[in-house]
Design brief:
Helix content is 40%, strand content 13%. The strands form 11 sheets. It has a 7-stranded mixed sheet with strand order 12-14-13-17-18-19-20. A 7-stranded mixed sheet has the order 22-23-24-21-25-26-27, sandwiched between helices. It has a 4-stranded parallel sheet with strand order 7-6-8-9, with helices on both faces. A hairpin with an 8-residue loop joins strand 4 and strand 5 (150-151). It is globular and about 105 Å long.
Length: 1301
Amino acid sequence: MIDLSASKRERVYYPIVPLDPSRNNGYGMRTEEVDETNISSFGSAKMGATRNTRRTRLHSMSTGTSHCSSSSSSRGVILQMRLGHLTLALALLIVCSIAVSGVVSASFTVHPPVAIMRSRFVPRQLTKDGTTPSKLFVSTTDNDSKTTKPQLSTEKTLTQHERNLPNVVLLAGFESFNRDLYQQAAARLPEGTKMNLQVFCDSDIRGSSGTNTSMTNPAFALAMEQADAFIGSLLFDYDDVMAVQALLPHVKGPRLIFESATELMSFNRVGTFSMDTPAGGSEKAGPPPAIKAILSKFSSGKEEDKINGYLKLLKVGPDLLKYVPGEKASDLRTWLEAYRYWNQGGVRNVAAMLQLLSQRLLVQKKDIGVKEISLPELQVTPDVGLLHPLLLLESGPTQYMTSPKQYVNWRESRACKDLAKQQGFVLAPDTAPRVAILLYRKHVITEQRYISDLITQMEASGIFPIPVFINGVEAHTIVRDLLTSQYEIDGVAKGTIVRDDTYVPSKAARVDAIVSTIGFPLVGGPAGSMEAGRNVAIAENLLTHMNVPYIIASPLLLQSIPQWKKTGVIGLQSVVLYSLPELDGAIDTTILGGLVGDKIALIPERVRKLADRIHGWVNLHRTPPHDRTISIMLYGFPPNVGAVGTAALLDVPNSLESMLKRLHHDGYDVGGFASDPDASGGSIVAALSVLNENSVIASGAGRIQDALEDRMVRARNGDATIAETLAKPGGGLGGGTVRALDVSNAELDDVLGNYMAKKVRRAWSDKERGPGVSGDGKLVVSGIQIGNVWVTVQPLLGVEGDPMRLLFERDLTPHPQYCAAYEYMRRPELDGGIGAHAVVHLGMHGTVEWLPGQPLGNDRQSWSDELLGHLPNIYIYAANNPSESILAKRRGYGTLVSYNIPPYGRAGLYLELANLKDLMGEYRMGELTDETSGGSSRSDLREAIWCSCQRCEITSDVPLLANAGDKTSAITGPDLPLTLSDESFDAWVADVTEYLSELQDRLFSSGLHTLGGLPTDDELASYLDAYFGDKLSQADREKVISAFHTTASSQQQGDSNIFSSFVDWLSNFASEFTNDFALETSTNDSKEESDSSMQVLNEASDIVSLLSRNTEELDSVMTALNGGYVPPKPGGDLLRDGTSVLPTGRNIHALDPYRMPSAGAWARGQRAAKEIIRQHREANNGKYPETCAVTLWGLDSIKTRGESIAIALSLVGAKPVKEGTGRVVRFDLVPLEELGRPRIDVLASLSVDLLDDMFERAAIAADEPEDMNFIKKHASELIADGVERPAARLFSNPPGDYGSM
C-alpha cells in the first residue's frame, strides 16, 4: 500500500496575487516549502501538496454512518447542480417577462452583515506606501494532516500596475482541485482585461484546525472587502453560506453566484439585474405559465425532466436576449452568458467568462483604458457524451461519442482493437460484463486524470466500460432512454414491460450493471436531494425494469485520502454516497480514492475491488441456476446452548425449508430435498448443531460425517439427548451430507495474503488460535451439502467465554477459523474451496459486518471487505431494524431483503397477575358493599393484595408510600403497618389497577415469522387489532379480511372488475355502518363519522393487502440470487411508521441522519424533556436538574426519527435549524427570555456532530449567567480543574469500535 502520511513540515501560503512564476506551485499559492505526498494514480505524476483541511472532529451515531465536523457541520457538498435549476428558473422567469412585455423588474437590496460575524472581520485598510496587510497561513502539518494554525505574517507590496487592476474573488466551493485551472484562465486574459484573481475554496472560508472554526478566515474576509467582483459556485455548507452571506454586501461590483444555496443565490447582481426579491414582494415560487410553456419545448414534459430542460434552455437564453433592447435585458444576458461559459467549463471558457466580466462590468482604474476585445467562441462540450482514453488518442480531447450504441460499435471495432494493440492498452474482451459508468461532465471538461485512470483500470480488470458523462441531474434519462438490459429486452418481447416513449433504440446499449460515480438520488442527482425520496418511485420503476445491480463507486471529493484512512467516510460525504443513493436501492458502495492535495487520486486496489464485485454479480447472473453454488449461513449465538439456527423474530428452520423448496422450483440443484417427504429445515439445523459441537470439531473434518451418522443412530434408538428429527430416514436431510475441510495455518496465510495474514498471526498466537480448531491444529470448516447448496453456521465472533470479544477490541482480527470459513467458502472448487457464487445470511443478524475496519467506507484493511471479497451477499434482515441493517448493507456489502415481524399480541395477564386483578376487582366492589352494609370486607383483602403485589414484584414499580408524596417512606416489609390510612391504600390500589391495565394491553411480537409465509386470518386480525385498537371492531376486522379473500379469489379467476367490486363493497359497508349511526347523531356528525370510518376501512384493507404480499420476500431473494435489482423500502415498524414499510421483501434503508429530529420526534422529545424536568422538580423541592444523561443509541434514534436527540435539545434549550433543502444544519440556542428556565447540561453516550457544536457555543454564551446556564457553569468548573475540553459532553468509542457506528 502507498504511504499517504505527510511528514511534519511548515508551509507558507500567500494570498493570490500576480506572483513570480518561478515560485508558483500551480495551486494558486506561493510556497516557501511544499510538502508533497507521493501517490501514483496508475503511474501518474505526483499529485501535489497535502490538502490544508479544517479540523474535523469525528463523532458518530450507531446507525452505520459516521458523521463529522465541528461548527462546520457539513462542509462543502458536491452539489454540482443541486440548486442550478433555481438559478435558471429565476433567470428564465425574467427572460419570459422580457419576451412578453419588454420590461424587466429587477431590484437589489443590500443585506446587512450578521453582527456576530461582522465583529470578526478585518476592516479594509491600505497603508501609506500602498501595501495591503496580507494574511498568510503558516501551516504545521503533522502526520494525520490535521493541525493547521493561521498566523499573521509579512506584507505583500503591490506594484502600481497591480493596484490599478480590479480585484476579483473566485470562491470555488469544494472544487479545490480546480485552483490551477482558474489561475491558468486568469493568466490567459488579454491586456486591458487583466485582473487580480484570488481563488479560495470552502476550506479557506473559516478558521482552520486549532482555531475556532466559526471565525471567518481574515485573509478571505479582507479579500472580500477589497473585491470589485465576486464569483461563487458550489456553496452549500450552512456555516460557510452564513459567512459568505455576511461579506457579500462589501463587494462593490458584480456578483455571479452559480449552483449554490438559496440563501446566496439572491445575491446575484449584474448591473441593473438582480435576483433579490423586492421588499414586500409576493411572487410565488416556480415559473409562471408562460415560462412553463417555453420549458415544455426543451424537455419531455415529465416532471422529473424539468431540471434537464432548464439546462437545455440555458444554451439559447443569451441568444434570445440579443434582440431585446434595454440595459436591463443586456445585464441579464451578461449573467446568462457568463453562466453559459462557466457551465461549459475548461480553461478557455473560464478565461472567456473572466474577460466578459472585465470588459462589460468592472470599472477600469485610472491608468487602464477600456479595450473591447471580441470574446472567444464558446467551446461546447455536449451535455451527454461517452469517452475512452483510446478515443481521445484517436479523435482528440474534444471529440466524444454521442450515444452508447455508437460507443459500443466503436469499442467492438477492429480499429479500436488495433489502436489498443499499438498503444499497449489492455482491452477487456467483448464478452466481458458491460457496465454503464455515470461520470461528472464537469470533471471530464476539466480533464481530471482519475476518469481516464478509472476506465483504464476497469478494462484491465476485465470490465467492458460504457462511460457516460452527464451534468448530474439527468442520470435517470440515461437509464431510461439510452440503456437497456437483457431482462428488459425479454420483458418487452413478452409484453410484461412497457418502455417509456422517450427510449431511443437506435442509441441504446445493453448493460449488465450500472455504476454511478455521482451519488445522490438517481432522479435529479444533486438537485434531487432537495426533497430526498421525492422521486424514488420513478427511480425504482426504471431500475426494476433494468433489473441489474445499481452500484455507487466514487473517489471522495470532500475528504482527503489520509482523513478517510483515519476516520472513515464522514459528514455529508456519507450522505452523498450512502444515504441518498440507498433511497433508490443502490448497493455495494465502494470508495475509489479521494483528495491528495488539491487533486483527485484513485487507489488502484479499490478499483480492482469494484471490478471484482461487479464480476461477482454478473457471473452469478450468467451462471445457469442449476450450476450455481449457493452458501446459506445460519447463526449459533450464544454458543453451545442449543442456539444454532436462531435469528431475531424469524423461524429459521421453516424459513430454510421454504427457501430450499423455492430454489428447487426456480431450477437450482438442491439434491433430493424437495422430493423427500422426511426432509425438513429442522433436520438441517439439528445436523449443524452436531457439526458445531467442540468434541466433533476436535476430531477433524474427516470424522465429522461419522459423528453425524452416530447421532442419527442414537436418535433412532430413542436417545432423548439427540434431536428427534435426526431419527428420520437419512436424518431428514434430503440426501444432504457433510462437506468439511481441514485448513492448515500455511494454507490460510496463502489465501489471506501476506499483509492480512501477518495481522492474524500477531493477534492470535499458536497457544491461542481461537475456536474451530481440531486436535491436530487444523482449522475446521464444515457444513451440510444439499445438491449445490452448502448450509453452514457462521463462526463465533470471539472465543469461548468471551463470544463478543471482537466487538470491543478494534485492533484484534477475526480468529483464524473465522477467516478460513469465509475464505474457503468463496474459494473455487478447483482450488479446494466451496466455490460459492453467492452467500445468503439468513436472519438478523450475523457478525461479518461488525468486524474491525473502517466505520464507513471499507478499505483494504477492513475485515468485512477482505472476507466477503467478490461474493454477492444477500442478507435477509428484519424490517423493523433499519439502523443495524445499514451496517450489513454498507460494511458487509449486503443486498438486504427484509422480512416481516410476527403478528402483534396483547400481553394479557396470567397466573398470579390474573389473580391479583381479580383481587383488585373484589376490593373495588367491596367499597360499594361496605358503604351500604357497614361491613369491612375490604379490610380482609388488604393483606392478600399486598402479598400478591410483593410476589409479582409490582411494589418496585408502584410503591406504597406511608406518607403521601414522600418516596423515602415506601413500605417494603411483608406486613402492612397498622397506621396506614384507608385513603393511602385506596389511592395505591387505583395506581396498581392502572398499572395492570397498561400491562395487560402491552403489545409484543407473537411467535416467529417464516420467510415468504402468508399470514393466517388470525394473524391478520392481530395486526389490525394492534394497529387500530378500538377504531376497528372485531366484526369489521373479520369483514375486511373476508373481503380480501373474495378479492384474491376473484383475481385468480381473472375477474377484471374485481377492484371496482371491492371498492363498491367498502362503500356499501361504510354506508350501512354510518346510516345506523346517523339515527342517533346530527347530520354533520354523521358525515364526519362516515368519512372517518371509510378512511379506517380503506386503511385496514391496504394493510391486509400489503401483509398478504409476504410471498415477495422469497421472490426478492430469488431476484438477488439471479444478480438482479431488489426494490428499496424504508425500514421500520408498522405501528410506528405506518404502511410505508410494507410490503416486505425489500432492500431496506434508514432515515437520513441529517433530517433528524423529524417534526413528530421533535414534538415528542419536547414533551419528554418537560416531563423529566417536572418530575425532578417535584421530587427536589422545585430545584432544576443541572445535568441529565441521554443515550443517543442509533437503533432508537432511527426507529423514533430522532426522539432522543430532541430530548437532549429540549433540555439544553435549543432547536434545529433547517436550510432550504430541509436538511438540519445546526442546533441554535433558544434565548433565555424565551426559554424561561435554566439550560440543563446533558451528558450523552454517543455523539452527533451538530450537538457538539451546540454545546461549545452554549459553554461560551457571553450574555448568560451561570445560574441560568448549567453548561457554562460546569464548563467554568472544568476549566478551573485544568480540563482541556470543558465543553465536551458527547462520548463514544473510537471510530471503528463497536458502538461508534
